[in-house]
Amino acid sequence: MDPAASPWHLLGAELRYWRDEVRKLNLREAAAKALCDHGDLSKWERGLARMQTDVIDRLDDLYGANGRLAALHAAMTELDNYRMGRVAPDASSRDEDDDMERRAVMQILAALGAGAAIPPGTWDALFSGVERTIAGRSGIGVDDWSEIVWEHDFAYYTNPPGTVFQTIASDFAEVSTLLKRTSTATARSGLLRISAQLAVLMGMEMSDVGDQGSSLRAWRLARRAADATGDRDLRVWVRGWEAEYGYWAGRPAPVIARLANDAIEIADGSPSRSLAEAHMVRAFLLASQGDAASTQTALVDLRRTFDAFPDAVDSDQTSPLWSFRAWAQAWALAYPYALLGQTREAIDATDQARALCPPTFHGNAANLALVYALTQARGRDVDHGLQEAIATAQAWPVSTIRRLIIGQMLDDLPQKSLESEAAHELRSLTKGSVSDA
């Protein structure tokens, strides 16, 4: 099998990988469980036959591929139709660059499905349309994609790490194509704004699955796209999120401080969710360095910004990535207090955040549970903290945020507790890449 030989060879190689290496099933076992013929499955794995959508959906569920195989099959089918001329009327206008970006998305999805590294140059192909627009190339106009981004924001908050990247990358490729055809300045600015937000989401997702190199590329593009729009709030928003995820991913402290300070400088005192984010990240960074006085100053700045928010920032119609609710403010207090060993304050803030956090934001609930565990471990009840952390790590996939909090907790354990069975179990739950968790 040569995955580069044809789209169906690529799909076949993925099918074999998930059956043989991930699930450890032979052909007959897999075919019986997926309600298909083992001879047909063999042909599909060798790229000799095309398979139906219902079959790929059953195999995707059987192998636990979380939609990767189904998405790859859909992309292969669309590409095959494109090559055979069986395309929608408006697809005939796509040029060679469009096809290159489509292939880039398929390569990224295939690499994610196989747990492999993103092929070199793939991100360049995917980001090319936005890059050219930033440089001044024009094209045709397009409608606003704000509602799509809003839905992606909620999906990011309510789904496990790495599971919404596929749709985000596909939408980014489409926006990139539209940007190349846009000649109107207003439409181009609107699309660049959408591109910046989608790139932020890709940066978060790539960080959560452990691909920090791809995450950095997405963050850089998000900054450039935001700057190209001239939208102050967007520029602050991108830098605030990059600073926060840079902190969780372990980027150098001076880089995190620069991003947060840049966001504060660009905001120029205008209160916003993004400015609150920047002050929060400064508090996190200073608390991690043990600077209690400067941490308190950053938290005071955060409170002042929060109190000055316009009503729209706290609206139910605002996406989670653009809002800063009361539960988020409580979270912003709980974590630095936990790092500084201020047990009572940390517990009070954590309890408040847990009570206010939306029930569908499972990942945030897991983060708060780990802050509580960190507080216990650094306070009076190490064993309780370890058990809380183990239960959380077992119940929810390990993300960039949760990996760092668990690492900080383990690093600060006394020697006796560090050698305990509970500590070894917690460490084993976070071994390997984030996507393995």
Automatic annotation (TrEMBL):
Protein name: Helix-turn-helix domain-containing protein
Species name: Nonomuraea insulae
SUPFAM superfamilies, A to Z: TPR-like (SSF48452)
Database matches in InterPro entries: Cro/C1-type_HTH, Lambda_DNA-bd_dom_sf, TPR-like_helical_dom_sf
High-level lineage: Bacteria, Bacillati, Actinomycetota, Actinomycetes, Streptosporangiales
